[in-house]
């Protein structure tokens, strides 16, 4: 599985605030991003399943494959590709 790395830059004040609420700031940021991605994956799988069932399309096997299928079929797109940003769910 291909992995992506992201860097977050915080001001000293933001760092202090994060250290106040989190034992490990890196773990907290990573956990927040992974949980939000998990929620989006669940939503995408539901959309893909409904579309495939309605259109008699075989559903791909596995979570990664189902997310890729949803993108290939145009069920989902990337937020950056939309003409108007949509508010994220959750």
Task: State the gist of this model.
The protein is mostly helical and 90 residues long.
Key traits:
single chain; 90 residues; mainly alpha; 3 helices
Describe it for me?
The protein has 90 residues and is mainly alpha-helical. It is elongated, with a radius of gyration of 17 Å. It has one domain. It has 3 helices and no strands. The mean pLDDT is 93. Helix 2 (25-54) crosses helix 3. The chain has helices spanning 12-21, 25-54, 63-72.
Number of strands: 0
Helix content: 55-70%
Q: What is the overall silhouette?
A: elongated
The overall pLDDT, averaged over residues, is 93
Low-confidence stretches: none
* Main beta-sheet annotation: none
- How far is the first residue's CA from the last residue's CA? 26 Å
- SS-derived structural category: mainly alpha
Strand content: under 5%
Tell me the count of domains.
Answer: 1
Radius of gyration: 17 Å
How many DSSP H or I helices? 3
Write the SSE topology.
Elements: H1 12-21, H2 25-54, H3 63-72
Helix pairs in contact: 2-3
